[in-house]
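Objective 1.3, modelling of assemblies. Example input:
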Amino acid sequence: MSELLYYDLKDSAGVAPGLATQVCRELGRRIVAGHFPEGSLIDDENKLCTRFGVSKSVVREAIKLLVGKGLLEVRRGSGTRVRRRASWNLLDDDVLAWHQGIEPKPEFLRQLMDVRQMVEPNAAGWAAKTATPEQIEDIRNAQHDMEQAASIQDFVVADALFHRSVLRAANNEVLIALEGVIFSALLSSIKVTNSDPRENKRSLPLHRQVLKAIEAHDSEGASSAMREHLADTYERLAGALPDFNAKRGAKLQGE
Amino acid sequence: MSELLYYDLKDSAGVAPGLATQVCRELGRRIVAGHFPEGSLIDDENKLCTRFGVSKSVVREAIKLLVGKGLLEVRRGSGTRVRRRASWNLLDDDVLAWHQGIEPKPEFLRQLMDVRQMVEPNAAGWAAKTATPEQIEDIRNAQHDMEQAASIQDFVVADALFHRSVLRAANNEVLIALEGVIFSALLSSIKVTNSDPRENKRSLPLHRQVLKAIEAHDSEGASSAMREHLADTYERLAGALPDFNAKRGAKLQGE
DNA sequence: ACAAATAAAACATCAGATGTTTAGTATCTC
DNA sequence: GAGATACTAAACATCTGATGTTTTATTTGT
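Predicted structure (tokens):
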């Protein structure tokens, strides 16, 4: 699987990132990958400067970016330490994207999927009520692209665009901010159940059904079609990942 | 209503914020308040330095923080501009908190409440399945504090802690990241329906019901009790705010 | 042992110099 | 006069080094 990134679907300006952004990404990826225990000190500014071969201002700006995402906590005189994972802005697009760089953890993927199952049926239902003709057109186009996709690459991109269009059609700003979660879960899922392109085609009828319901302004229908589609995905993940559903309802060890 | 802030409920280190953080907040608040049109250039680094009376490094770090939250976009040679609202990390705790500084917009509050209605019944249902004894204890304590609250202040804090405890008891990291949304909606709601303390007490039985259901590991019961409570809140908001439900299902003007 | 003074480490801020990119303007060519 | 080129000013990016403040650890004195 090639290097499909979330940014590929974002309308971000394609400007080359500065040094601060690069250092931020590098550190961010390592933190998310778990290279540092929670609460541990990271190297001080000077060490980071020499390690990355940049000046102090660059390092400080990179650290500020990570502080803003909740990954780091800086204490004057003491040092900079990694915050508890519970304090991270897990919904930040960058933080989610950095999770893509590591082996998907079944437990985390299940949590993402649980959230998808909570969010998307509602979004589809609302979309059926409030979508504008243009928004419906976007969904239709994405659905069409899924049908016509030649490569698995194209299919995934179209799939992502489909779900994004539905989310946006719900016309709820807060909901749209959850786009990254849907995309991240979708990417991880593909990574896991990658095997057979024909397998993916199985989801086409359900997508078609979601589209039809939204076109018909059938809120209930859109919800349940989306629910069914996600339940199907859920099943396939559970089949592919042994530990996918392991901790469900049996959280024993202390927090 | 006094200056109750989200941070009051956060386990953040109570360290005095540096200059960069202060500048960031000041700018962030103004942006969120809508003082700048989308896409407009803000003052350049030098002007910001003189305006805030700080050095360039401080300004640059502040801007980096805002870039990380999606509010600003910096282009070398060109300038720094405010991004479209759709690109903001609306789920970022700071961005949500800055919304508290301005008059709550009915449309936005409704969107927050829609998301709460989507999230919290599910969370309560999951909590009923997976909550540990300690987590249930936390919920119980918050519920008890609501009953005993002497001031409206105390009541709001206890209310917030109740909903936070339930959210955390669902044992889903991604869900926990939505804490800020719940808190923000709750604060805005209080601001709107502030009038009568006795009015707030009305929600006590429903909170009690949620607690009971979770204690009994009754997932369905917890869900529906929470759903009922939120529907009630929703009604009160709709009654208090004329435009609360205005745009629902009638999104006419272009994006 | 306990407490106060001290020293070292680490972040915070400032100031200024230099490089790069962008956007706009002027100019030159045909 | 239209279009391409060259110049210039504005604005961000990066580096350097100096100075201040806070925290932590150590030393020292009784």
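The CA atoms of residues 144 and 158 of chain A lie 8 Å apart.
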